[in-house]
Amino acid sequence: MKKFVVASLAFMAFAAPASAADMPVKAAMSPIAAPFSWTGFYIGVNGGYGWSRNVGATTFTNSVAQVFTTTGTTFDGNGGFGGVQAGYNWQAGQIVYGLEADLQFASIKSDIAGGVTGFADVYNGSRKLNYFGTVRGRLGYAFDRALIYATGGFAYGGLSQSIMSPNAGWNVSTNTGAAGYAVGGGLEYALSPPWSVKAEYQFIDFGNHALAGCYAGCGITLSSNNLSRQYHTVRVGLNYKFMGWR
In whole angstroms, how far apart are CA 165 and each of 121, 129, 176, 211? Predict the structure, then answer.
């Protein structure tokens, strides 16, 4: 009897490991990928195209009370620009909000040309947006790596303008700063955790301003009626997010 019990126990001891070896093994759990986050500091570059609407006929008045109305056309302004941007995003759920500043070097030019009512003189004028920048807030909604956003804030720029009468020999020019606002929106997509691309539209309004200058040793001044300084811009850009800035 004792021999039978001992033999049974020995058999069970050897059989248990074999049975365990035959049992199915549970697969190891795969690590869960962390969700993409837009939070962090970023810098980038961009380039695009800008244009301004036709502002219509232009009237010039000089300081001796002579009024000249152009019979030509104020042409639409257009041209390219390129620059840099930097900003910081915060993400709460799918809501993304942040601040962005950008600076653009531009060549967006508007021209005035034509005759003058009642006079033989011909006048030409031009206005060129040489640079502009913005400081804006951004508010968007994220679909993982895709971000749709609206943006708006302060805008500034530098314009050069000139008025010339080839017949009378007048050629006056001025440079002036401009301030206003910018609003727009865009789409940004993350190619990888640090890199993203974007496409954006902005409407920039610097208010109304006159073309102005002086001639004859500044003894006589010449100025136009107020002309709108509104610009539409479209751009594409590339951003790099610093992963440690959270």
Answer: 7, 22, 21, 14
Cα distances (Å, whole numbers) of residue 243 to 35, 63, 89: 14, 60, 12
In a domain, 195, yes or no: yes
Distance CA(105)–CA(17), nearest Å, equals 76
Residue 107 lies in a domain: yes
pLDDT in tens, 190-223: 999 999 999 999 999 999 888 777 766 677 777 7
What domain range includes position 112?
A: 40-242
Q: What is the CATH number of the domain that holds 116?
A: 2.40.160.20
Contact by Cβ (8 Å): 215, 172: yes
Instruction: Calculate the CA 29 to chain-centre distance.
Output: 44
Please count the structural domains in the chain. 1
221 has which bridge partners? Answer: 214
Sheet holding 212-215, edge to edge: 67-69, 59-62, 220-224, 212-215
Flag whether 29 is in a domain. Answer: no
* C-alpha 192 chain-centroid distance: 21
Task: Kindly tell me the burial class for residue 241, based on how many C-beta atoms sit within 10 Å of its own C-beta (0-12, 13-18, 19 or more).
Answer: buried
- Provide DSSP, 155-182: EEEEEEEEEEETTTTEEEEEEEEEEEEE
- Which tens digits make up the pLDDT trace of 121-171? 677 778 899 999 999 999 999 999 999 999 999 999 999 888 777 766 667
Note whether residue 157 is domain-resident.
yes
Nearest to 185 by CA among 154, 139, 132, 145: 139
